[in-house]
Amino acid sequence: MNVATRSLEQIRADFPILQRRVRDNKPLVYLDNAATTQKPQSVIEALTRFYSHYNSNIHRGVHALSEAATEAYETARKKVQTFLNAAHSHEIIFTRGTTESINLVALSFGSRFLEDGDEVLLTQMEHHANIVPWQLLQRFKNIKIKVIPITEEGTLDLNALDTLLTEKTRLLAFTHVSNALGTVNPVKKLIRWAKENGLYVLVDGAQAVPHLPVDVQDLQVDFYVFSGHKIYGPTGIGVLYGKTELLEAMPPYQGGGDMIKRVTFEKTLFNDLPMKFEAGTPNIAGAIGLGAAIDYIQQVGYDFIQQQEQQLLDHATRLLSEIPEIKIIGTAKEKAAVVSFVCEGVHPHDIGTLLDLEGVAVRAGHHCAQPVMDFYGLSATVRASFAFYNTMEEVEYFVQALKKAIRFFKR
Ligand code: PLP
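A: This is the predicted complex of the input protein with pyridoxal-5'-phosphate.
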């Protein structure tokens, strides 16, 4: 057994759920990591420790528990700051997840920085979370949504950029990595183009941070958002990174406790960043759990993550390409460890159901990216998405189970 294999075994042992058996005692082969990742013991313990040792509300109490909870919550914020290399910890706003972060920006940034007639540039490969909030903003502002098209391989058609740009274009909002296709977008190039043309930029990093390091200062991005549960942390916690000058100029998104300095019936004075955007009791345990997840990722290291996931992606792509009935959807050169595919004559949901009977968890559906499905003339795909804890043997088991499913439907 070589060192890499041994360390992978040790890594897998960190995730209790990976030892589970499902469906008539079959080993769980979890390939639905783009939907949510599994949690290492250290994250589970951080949550348990919070609730069993220092559960308390934050920023308010003078007692020991409240002090400990506040310190742990603010330490988690600092961990996120370091993780993204943000210039200040107050640029990190805790939200419920990517979805809430984008809704916050659409409504708050949109109300302050966008005017009737302004244009927002999205892409054909966005998750619904980066489409619908901009449509909701249209109830209040007469903004126009324009869409950067994609090519057959599932990359952005960059030739269209200059054609789509007008003097009314204000914001470019796009996904760093596509959840439905796996495409890694040329984020630096897109931001450079946007900045050269005076646009604000929001990047949806939900599918990027699990796979690659992000440096918001190096990117010079205005807003970067992600979800805790996709990077081995808890559900219900996420992050909005925003540049100080923008966050300061933006109005609060929600009103309530913690986001104020002084309230009278006539007037309210809002709190400073980051509290201005964190109304009410936040997900304290979730933030602390996210901090533990970041510690864990940094301990594993992106070098290992990228190397392992690239091997899994290459192996899965090669084996799937050898099956005549399978067509891979999304064949960009730069891809994260996600393989979407369809199978001639069999509905994706039927494939998903038969794989499940073998203990293999994949996703079948539109992946909350219906415009992507529309582009390919599909209603759904099967998606296998890998994490660094997956093994080559699991890839092979999945492909064998898929072949068995295809044989079943061909009978
Ligand atoms: N954006 C992308 C690219 C995603 O893949 C997802 C989730 O699948 C989201 C946004 C929404 O994330 P959440 O449901 O955690 O808010």
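The radius of gyration is 22 Å. The CA atoms of residues 110 and 137 lie 7 Å apart.
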